Amino acid sequence: MQTLKQKHRPFCFSVKGQVKMLRLALTVTSMAFFIIAQAPEPYIVITGFEVAVIFFFIILYMLRLDRLIDCLFWPLLDIINSMVTAVFMIIISVLALIPETTTFIVLGGLFS
C-alpha cells in the first residue's frame, strides 16, 4: 500500500503567509505616511521596528528555519509578537489622533 505524503505548500501561498504579507504591507504603508508627514520620531521608530520583526518572521518561515531550530516554540513567539504589536499600534493610533496632527499622521495611525 502506498503511503500518502503531504504535499509541501510554500509559505507565501499559505493563509498564514498571506496574512503576514498583508500585515507587512499595512505596516509599511503606515510607516510611509508617518515619514511623509514628518511625524514624531517614536511613531517612525516603532513602525520601523515592527516592519523589521515582521520581515524577520517572513524570512524565517520562508526558509523553513522554524523546522530546523526546534529549541524555540515558534508559534508562541509569533503570538507574543502579535500581542506586543497590537498594543504598540493601538497606542500609536490613539496618539496619532491628537488634534494637532496632520492628515498623513492620522492616515498612518489608521493604517496601523
TrEMBL record:
Domain MARVEL span(s) in chain numbering: 11-112
InterPro entries recorded: Marvel, MARVEL-CKLF_proteins
Record PROSITE patterns: MARVEL (PS51225)
Top-level division of the source organism's lineage: Eukaryota
A GO cellular component entry from the record: membrane
Primary location group: membrane
Keyword field contains Membrane: yes
Membrane topology value: Multi-pass membrane protein
Keyword Cell wall biogenesis/degradation in record: no
Protein localization: Membrane
Transmembrane parts of this sequence: 21-37, 43-63, 75-98
Keyword line: Membrane, Transmembrane, Transmembrane helix
PANTHER family according to UniProt: CHEMOKINE-LIKE FACTOR, MARVEL-CONTAINING POTENTIAL LIPID RAFT-ASSOCIATED PROTEIN
Stated name of the protein: Chemokine like factor
Species of the source: Panthera leo
Lineage: Eukaryota, Metazoa, Chordata, Craniata, Vertebrata
